Amino acid sequence: MTTLSKRRVLSAIMACVVALGLAVVSGSQPAEAANRDWLRHDSTGKCEWDKVKWWVQRCDVWSQSMGRNIPVQIQPAKRGGNAALYLLDGLRATNQTNAWVNDVNAAKTYEPHNITLAMPVGGAASFYADWQGPATYDLSNPVNYKWETFLTSELPGYLERNFGVARNNNSIAGLSMGAGAALTLAAKHPNQFRQALSFSGFLTTTVPGAQTFMRLAMLDAGGFNINAMYGSLFNPKRFQNDPLLLIPRLRNTNLYISAASGIPGPGDSHYLPQHQAAGAALEVGSNATTRAWETAARLQGLNPTVSYPAQGLHNWEQFGYQLNRSKTQVLNVMNAW
């Protein structure tokens, strides 16, 4: 055999070995691993592995409306499905992480399932709304909030391009501040959200006293100016963002609402007494407004799923419990098992 022939035979053998090796490797990687094991990247934002693990990627998503990148923690669907669950934070949302993967592990809860989790980071006291002016009184460092635009016009395109999420196959859930926002955004954008879930929300924001409560809470959360949200308390936008007044627009949306009694349970024993007292007061208020919202919804022909535990405070024991309790409904409606 000539030297050239030997080289050709050797090349053929090596090609076969490489092909077989690739077949073995690809065959050993399930489809869900293939969907989750690579970092997304495009011209509008890049991702890195988040320290919370569970295949969560922390992605910088450019927001034209806010003029900056918005971090979003994303867990891809296990088998490449096109459904997504948006998880909104509470009043004291931080710029470090979404609490749904910090205070409870939503990524672990939904790890076995074929749905993408989208968890935006930041937005303290924003109610995930488009504000009319700088969100705080510090005009030298203005805070520009355009969260509704980001969540409904900017983030959906990014999720579609990089994670295969359909723009019309989404669920949205939130706790406390984010709970009312979830219902509001679902009502205003029914073509995007097929389902909305409220965990311990305050769902009647224009009844007497509600604005005073919100004003004090927002000042305490970081000096946020409620007047800048609407322009003024008499602006129609104030009423256009009240979950109670948006009930008719949720007629075709699958709904889940919940609030506990405000009575401490066994799981609340590790909280300090002052935190238990605050959690009790907040949950009592949430329970009252959630029940009022349910009554109004049923009178208008809606049939939400409800959960009113006999014990529970306004804390992550309750929020995490509701996340797990509602999971079956989310997966059934979104066909994401």
UniProtKB/TrEMBL annotation:
<dbReference type="InterPro" id="IPR006311">
    <property type="entry name" value="TAT_signal"/>
</dbReference>
<comment type="similarity">
    <text>Belongs to the mycobacterial A85 antigen family.</text>
</comment>
<protein>
    <recommendedName>
        <fullName>Acyl-CoA:diacylglycerol acyltransferase</fullName>
        <ecNumber>2.3.1.122</ecNumber>
        <ecNumber>2.3.1.20</ecNumber>
    </recommendedName>
</protein>
<dbReference type="InterPro" id="IPR029058">
    <property type="entry name" value="AB_hydrolase_fold"/>
</dbReference>
<feature type="signal peptide">
    <location>
        <begin position="1"/>
        <end position="33"/>
    </location>
</feature>
<dbReference type="InterPro" id="IPR000801">
    <property type="entry name" value="Esterase-like"/>
</dbReference>
<keyword id="KW-0732">Signal</keyword>
<keyword id="KW-0378">Hydrolase</keyword>
<keyword id="KW-0012">Acyltransferase</keyword>
<dbReference type="GO" id="GO:0050348">
    <property type="term" value="F:trehalose O-mycolyltransferase activity"/>
</dbReference>
<keyword id="KW-0808">Transferase</keyword>
<dbReference type="GO" id="GO:0004144">
    <property type="term" value="F:diacylglycerol O-acyltransferase activity"/>
</dbReference>
<dbReference type="Pfam" id="PF00756">
    <property type="entry name" value="Esterase"/>
</dbReference>
<dbReference type="InterPro" id="IPR050583">
    <property type="entry name" value="Mycobacterial_A85_antigen"/>
</dbReference>
<dbReference type="GO" id="GO:0016787">
    <property type="term" value="F:hydrolase activity"/>
</dbReference>
